[in-house]
Amino acid sequence: MGETLLIDLRSDTVTKPSPDMRKAMAEAEVGDDVYGDDPTVNALEEKAAELFGKESALFVTSGTQGNLVSVLSQTGRGDEIILGNQSHIYSSEAGGVSVLGGVVMYPLETNQNGTIDIQKIKDAVKGDDYHKPRTKLFSFENSHNWSSGRPINKLDSDKMAKAAKEVGLRVHVDGARIFNSAVSLGIPVKELTENVDSVTFCLSKGLGCPIGSVIVGEKDQIIEARRVRKILGSAMRQVGVIASCGIVALDTMIERLEDDHENAKKLAIGLSEMDIIEIDADNIYTNLVRFKITNQKGFEFAEKLKEYGVHINGGESDLRMVTHYGIESSDIDKTIEAVSKAVNVI
C-alpha cells in the first residue's frame, strides 16, 4: 500500500502526445483558420474526409462539441433527435443539444450490443402530428461506451441507418472511438460508415492527440457546421499547432490500437479469475473493460485501488478501465496484481 500512482486507466483521454506529435507541433505551418488560411488544419480536414469517403470535414475542439455541432447543423429548434438511452449525447453531454439548440432528445432502449431495434427507430418518428416535435435525426454510437466498447459491425450499422432513412431521417454516428471499432472488425472506416450522413471522431482518445475531434459529412452540412462552431465561440486561429497532431495520429496511431485491444482482453481475462469480480471477458473487443465488485460500491473500490498504484473510474456499481497509448502488457500484469491485492483486503 501507499505505492506511487503509476498506471492510469481512467480513460484513453489521459494519453500524452507521441514524440512525432511533439515534433509536428513545433514545426507546424500555421495560418488563420477562421479565414481558412491554416494549411495544417486544411490538410487534416482533407485527410479525414478522404479516409471516411465523405465530401468534407471540420476540425473541432472536442468530441462533445463535435456531436453538438453535428446535431445542430442538421436540425432546427423544436426538432427531435432519436438516440439510445445509453448514448453519450443523451447521458453525458450536459443536455447540450437541448440547452443550446432547442432540440428534443427521444431516447430508445439500447440493446446489450449497443444497437437499437429497427422497429423502435421507425415507430419513434412523429410524422406530421403538429402536437409533437418534428423528428429529423437518428444517432448511434460506435464503439459503444456502456457496452464495454462493443463495436457495431457494418451489417447492424447499415440496418439502423437504412431504417432511419426509410422514415426520412438523417443519420449521425458518435464515432468517438470509431477507429477502435474499425480495427477490431478488420474493416476500413470508410466502409463501416458509408451509409451514414455524418460522423464525429475523437483524436484525443485512442489516437493519442492532446486536443481535438473531427466531423466528416456532406459539403453543405459541413458549411453549416462551420457556422454553428462559430456561434459556439469555437472558431480558432493558428490552430495548426494542434491539428498537426491529428495528421500524425491518422498516419501512425490507427493500427497500434490493436495493442490496446489485446491489453484490454488480457486485463479482462485476469479480472475474470477473481471470484469477487463480475465481468463478461468474452465480450471485450476493443479497449474498454467494464466490471463490478460484488460486495461494495464501485467508487469505493476505485479509491482503494489507488493505494496500489492504479487509477480507474468507479461509479455506484460499475467500474471501468481503459487501455491506451503508453500502457504496456507489463502494466496489465501489475494492474491485475494490484486488483488482486485490493480485493484480498476488502
Largest pleated sheet: 7 strands, mixed
Radius of gyration: 20 Å
How much helicity do the residues have? 40-55%
Number of helices: 14
- Classify the beta-strand content into a percent band: 15-25%
Listing every helix as H and every strand as E from the N terminus to the C terminus, the arrangement reads EHHEHEHHEHEHEHHEEHHHEEHEEEH
Mean pLDDT over the residues: 96
Tell me the span between the first and last alpha carbons: 13 Å
Low-confidence stretches: none
Q: What do these coordinates show?
A:
The chain is built from 14 helices and 13 strands. The strands form three sheets. Strands 2-8-7-6-5-3-4 form a seven-stranded mixed sheet, with helices on both faces. It is of the alpha/beta class. The longest helix is centred in the last third of the chain and has 16 residues, at 257-272. Helix content is 41%, strand content 17%. The mean pLDDT is 96. 51% of the residues are buried. The chain has helices at residues 19-27, 39-52, 63-72, 88-91, 96-101, 118-124, 154-166, 178-185, 189-192, 219-231, 240-252, 257-272, 298-306, 329-344, and strands at residues 7-8, 56-60, 79-84, 104-108, 134-141, 170-174, 198-202, 213-217, 277-278, 288-293, 310-311, 313-314, 318-322. The chain has two domains: 7-15 and 256-344, Aspartate Aminotransferase, domain 1, CATH 3.90.1150; 19-252, Aspartate Aminotransferase, domain 2, CATH 3.40.640. A hairpin with a 3-residue loop joins strand 12 and strand 13.
